[in-house]
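Good morning N.,

You mentioned wanting to compare the apo and holo forms, so I went ahead and generated the holo version with zinc ion. This is what I fed in:
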Amino acid sequence: MILKHAKIQQKKFVVLESKIEINNTEEKKTTNILPFDLNFEILIPSGDSRTIRVILEITVNSERSYDEFVIYTRTGAEYHFTEELSKESKEYHALLSGSALPCLINQTRLYLKTMTSYFPIGEYILPMIDMRDLLKQKSREQIIEQESQTEYRKRKNSNTWHWRQNCSKYPKTNYTTISSKPSSGKLCKECEAKSDK
Ligand SMILES: [Zn+2]
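and this is what came out, ligand included:
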C-alpha cells in the first residue's frame, strides 16, 4: 500500500491543566458510566493561516455524585495544513472536525487512561463520543466565530459601533473597544454592508 499523507499534520500535543482525584464519601455511590462533559475551542494564531490550535476541556463526575474519579483536564494540540485551503471550504472543515478534533480527543483519552492506571481503583477510559452529534450541537458558525474574535470599536463621544477595519469611520484614536457583539448602542451601517461580502 502506498500511503498518502493527510493535508493536516499534528505538530504538538500538550496538557495545559490536569486534576485527577478520587471522590470519597461515606455512601460509596458507584456507577458504570460516569457523567462527563466536553468543550472545545479552535484558534487560529494571527498571521499564520495554515496553523490551528484546538483546546479541549473535559470534566468527569464534576458534581461529585459518585465515589469515583473526579477529573478536569485541559489539553491542546497544534496542527499544520500542508496546503492553503479556504476556511469556507468543506475540506477545511472536514479536516478540522474529522481529523484534528478526534485526534486530540483520542490523545486525551490515552493520557487519562495512563494517568488513572496508577490509582487504586483502576484506569479510566473516556467513552467514545458521537462526533456528528457533538458538531451538530456546536454549529459551524459557532466554531468560526471563535476563530476570529471580532473587535468592536466606538468613538468615546458616539454610540455607534464599528468592526470592519476598512470602514471609512473605523475609529483609530480616542475609542473604546470590546471583543464581543455590543448589546447597547447602534451598529454601523457601513460595517454591516462590508460584512455581507
Ligand atoms: Zn463602520
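The first strand starts at residue 8 and ends at 22.

Happy to go through it together on a call whenever suits you.

Best,
F.
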